[in-house]
Amino acid sequence: MSDHRPQRRARLLDSVARQRAESILVSFLPNVRYLCGFTGSNGLLLITPKTAILFTDPRYEIQAAQECDCEVKIVKGSPWPAAATEARRRHVPRLALEADKVSFDQWSAFASQLGKKVSLVPVRELVEALRAVKSQDEIAAIRRSVQVCSKAFTQTVRKIRPGMAEFEVAAELDHRMRMLGAEAPAFETIVASGPRTALPHARPGAGTLRPNQLLLVDMGASVAGYSSDMTRVLHIGHPGTRARALYHAVLEAQLAAISAVRPGATCGDVDNAARRSLRKAKLDRYFTHSTGHGLGLEIHEAPRVAARTETRLQPGMVITIEPGVYLEEFGGVRIEDTVLVTETGVEVLTPTTKEFLVIPS
């Protein structure tokens, strides 16, 4: 992916120029990684029309030299004063800073370090807008992540039995993802059973899987820094009429939303397709979150697939489609795939079956 980094930085400077600045200091670490390859936990990236410089500390001297395609400066202590000194030395008149990624105190301190000859220009989500459309290398990494996630789920399902604790299932999923090549789960794996499936972000607990209950698994893998995201719902024992009807309604909504994904469609259009389907089943008021989100270096990134969102989908965007219905005291169903916006429509990257799987009781 290093071949893309100079182009990314050039495109970013074009966006910065439209904000009436000449250079930018990037502090948000996923953005730093996207622009220069650095994966450490402490770094600032100064980009000017003539150069790109990463400032980091001695812990990362070897790592930064291996990862980055730009100049690296190792500094002791905070990198902010060193970045300010470099901006002054290069006579940067107007320096953009990610205003939504720094605190008021950090902004004030840095402005003081810059002095009166350098003006700070607040910018927001300039790098995130570039990241929303993935390169072929990024898409390939997400494909690998999706495959790892799917295989780990399939392997784990074979081991699930009544009496297992939710946290045991989550641990098995995480272990399988690691063994299949993930560097980490993309987020804290969600495993919930019974009425707890009505909690969209339930954390795995010590409760055990019991017959005649729903089981929800929401998981993702991080491979080469890129995330996948998938949710599937199973049933312990033979599902009753209500559980089957609920599952079918959510599946229909998910398929309707996927069918709405195409270049030029707005994110609001996709969200509305899911809600319109659930409205026919009189379940739309139990759908309490957005239909999906972009993913890549972060598990949640642009674009947001939500009601009244006017962002238009473009080829190369990778998003989730994940409608859900949550009924207190009974349980919830959410079905989620990672999908790619193509030149002609959509490709579902998640290969895992959406059959309503049954765990023998």
Main attributes of the structure:
single chain; Creatine Amidinohydrolase, Chain A, domain 1; Creatine Amidinohydrolase; 6-stranded mixed sheet; 10 helices; 20 strands; elongated
Could you explain the architecture of this structure?
- It is a single chain.
- This protein has 361 residues and is of the alpha+beta class.
- It folds into 2 domains: 2-131, Creatinase/prolidase N-terminal domain (Creatine Amidinohydrolase, Chain A, domain 1); 136-359, Creatinase/methionine aminopeptidase superfamily (Creatine Amidinohydrolase, Alpha-Beta Complex).
- Helix content is 35%, strand content 23%.
- The protein has a 6-stranded mixed sheet, with helices on both faces. Strands 8-9-12-20 form a 4-stranded mixed sheet, covered by helices on one side.
- Helix 4 (80-89) packs parallel to helix 5.
- The radius of gyration is 23 Å and the shape is elongated.
In brief:
The chain has 361 residues and is α+β, with helices and mostly antiparallel strands. The chain has helices spanning 5-18, 29-36, 61-67, 80-89, 104-114, 126-131, 136-157, 166-179, 241-259, 267-280; strands at residues 23-26, 44-47, 52-56, 71-74, 94-98, 119-123, 184-185, 190-193, 213-219, 221-223, 226-227, 230-236, 292-294, 301-305, 318-321, 324-327, 331-334, 337-341, 346-348, 358-359.
